[in-house]
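User: quick one, fold this
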Amino acid sequence: MTFKTGEKIGLRPVEPEDLDVLSEWENDPEVMLLGNNLTPFSRFFLEQYILGAKNNIYEDKQLRLVIENREKEVVGLIDLFDFDPHHRRAAIGILIGKAHRKKGYASEAMELIIDYGKNTLGLKQLYGTVDDNNQSSKALFLQKGFVLTGKRKQWNLRGREWTDEDFFQLVF
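Assistant:
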């Protein structure tokens, strides 16, 4: 079931058949560091997550969607999380699989999720955080109208190096 559709991609809920790719991406050391997760997820844990998610942002306080290309190939994930219906805001996170980057999938997925947040959920704002050295993600947020509103100095430890974290907001 496709949730939202664009020219190149569609967004849909995570399904049990996504377990292999979800396990691969969630346990990729690079992704684990960016997500501030230092331990791998077991297949059992991820399966229980998939089966237990209600895909109701008001109950789960998050919405994780699969990004599929026109060939129905899973190319990434996009999340709304830290959903706060009272203050009408949510954080946004996006991951495009390494083999699928630089094809415009992230840009279109962001457009679809921004539209959903603004026009369906009635959010006042979306926000995201990006490591200061992640130039492509920073460019994506800026391209979609987000504004850099803050910088947390030496916020994340990446290996043996401290990195700054940039805070982006899109206020409607």
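User: anything notable?
Assistant: The beta strands are 4-5, 9-13, 63-69, 74-84, 89-96, 125-131, 147-158, 161-171.
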